[in-house]
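Data card: per-record layout.
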Amino acid sequence: MEKVVSLCKRRGFIFQGSEIYGGYAGFWDYGPLGVELKNNIKKQWWKDMVYKRDDIVGLDAAIIMNPKVWEASGHLKAFTDPLVECKICHKRFKAEDEEVLKAHGSEHDGKIAWTETKTFNLMTEVMLGVVEPKEKAYLRGEITQGVFVNFRNVVDSTRVKIPFGIAQIGKAFRNEITPGNFTFRSREFEQMELEYFVEPDEAGSKKTFDFWKEERMKWYVSLGINKEKLRFREHEPEKRAHYARLAEDIEYNAPFGWSEFEGIHHRGDYDLGKHKLTYKEEGGKEYTPWVIETSGGVDRATLFFLLDAYHEDEKRVVLKLSPKIAPFKVAVFPLLSNKDELVKKAKDIYKHLRDEVEIVAAWDDRGNIGKRYFAQDEIGTPWCVTVDFQTLEDDTVTIRDRDTAKQERIKVDKLDEYLQNRLR
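The structure for this 424-residue chain is written out next.
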């Protein structure tokens, strides 16, 4: 874990938020490579969940909504965590984090005393208005409610018919008691969610729940996460969220233990019922649809993609990211940076790939070729193209594979096809 955190800072993936002022617990900034990786994950999700399906449309709802939304949804009462406070130093912790509580006890030589468990609401308050007293509102604790309050708008403005889904990616905020494990538990984070609406039928909705559960697991495996490090965990009835009829998590075996980063939930008619929304079929039949939800954490997925991709041996560190989500797809460099003819040819290839083929490419002419390969391996670039003196003679280049470090020569006019075939 420490090595990945170090790499993220060193190579510009993730920085501590407000670092020059000592940071701020639970907030993180994504650097030049981190924002590319994160955006690629979101783009791939949107492509697979929206563009490749005829029954799903997109939405981007506001972060701040009328407080009545949260009152109706139950978040103001039920969106809580159990909290305890150390009577000695007055630090607060989640009551269910047994390992954290035990570790804190050692800070006081085992002489520890805790307050009674209290209920702590995770909603983040914000004050709005130009006159006092200002109006209290909330930063959304989940992006889900924006879909439900727009249910009627989507149905009326599109041709969707049940069963159909509404997809959304966006920021959410939770006043976490104990943010930690790098970006895993943060106070500001991003979610990628699908709310899929079905008829109120036990058998049919369970079939849909099982379908999306398997689809979401397959998606992570298709993007390179080791299947042996993934598992489903079913929520026991007494531990389900206030809205859930069924709930299962996809968990990753992280250095800090099995950890959830996507939930599949059967929300029944809880949300649309709370907002008093119904669906009317063409034949006149009217009912409150049930909802099957897939709710993934973008930041948690990004962290687990990084952790799973990290490999090292005696010679090098390699991020074996799927080419579909790698920040750069290819790097181009001249063998020698002080030979104008090599630099010009390499620049022409680089600009062609970047501007005409529209492949996200990196340019690097610093140091020797070995150091450039090392740097690209460490940031996950799948292929490196080197222009050398033979290129000037026969118009071939060396292309090196990140994972195997093997090299082959191909004609420059075959380079587009070579890369595009491997990026599909």
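Known properties of this structure: The longest strand covers residues 257-268. Residues 278 and 288 are 4 Å apart (CA to CA).

See the next section for split statistics.
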